[in-house]
Design a protein that fits this description.
Elements (H helix, E strand, L loop, with lengths): L1 H30 L3 H10 L5 H37 L6 H34 L12 H29 L1
Helix pairs in contact: 1-3, 2-3, 3-4, 4-5
């Protein structure tokens, strides 16, 4: 099961980097006024809003890039935790730090998601028939709390394990 999980994380990491490349290329196309991208922005914007829409689209893409980088860091932490489990050290103190780092990265993602909501709201005012929507979700916030608690549990478990090994 751990091999399948590791393989899944590796595949997802690759897909995430493809997304980063796509977002970056799209930002460059919009900023450099590549005809296809520029025409698309002008075509969907309400009259007089093309420049503002361009700025908002770039903002959303930058949010996507930043989110993807945070996701990459989470995947790296998961791979390190999997490696420690395979090595027979699941309650290593480093895993507590890794879980805490994952919680912080998720917090960054949640904050970026809130910024994304404001950008989508602005787009809906600038575009005819905007196909975008956003809805808040408590799942990410619950995951952050859970990871912080698990990080503490792992840190305490590692300390107890070290203490036990020291007394034997």
């Amino acid at each position: 099961m751990l091999r399948a999980t590791r393989l899944s994380i590796v595949v997802l990491t690759f897909a995430n980097w493809v997304a980063i490349a796509f977002f970056t290329l799209t930002v460059l196309c919009v900023l450099l006024d590549v005809p296809l991208a520029a025409d698309r922005v002008k075509r969907v914007a309400l009259p007089g809003n093309a420049d503002t829409l361009k700025q908002i689209v770039v903002t959303i893409l930058l949010i996507g890039i930043t989110t993807s980088v945070a996701v990459d860091r989470i995947f790296r932490q998961i791979l390190c935790i999997l490696d420690s489990v395979v090595a027979g050290q699941p309650f290593a103190s480093a895993n507590g730090s890794r879980l805490r780092a994952m919680a912080w990265y998720l917090l960054v993602i949640q904050i970026l998601d809130t910024g994304f909501a404001f950008a989508i709201r602005t787009i809906n005012h600038l575009v005819n028939h905007a196909p975008f929507g956003w809805g808040p979700s408590a799942t990410g916030w619950i995951a952050i709390l859970l990871l912080f608690v698990l990080a503490h549990v792992f840190t305490q478990g590692a300390a107890m394990q070290d203490e036990l090994e020291g007394t034997v």
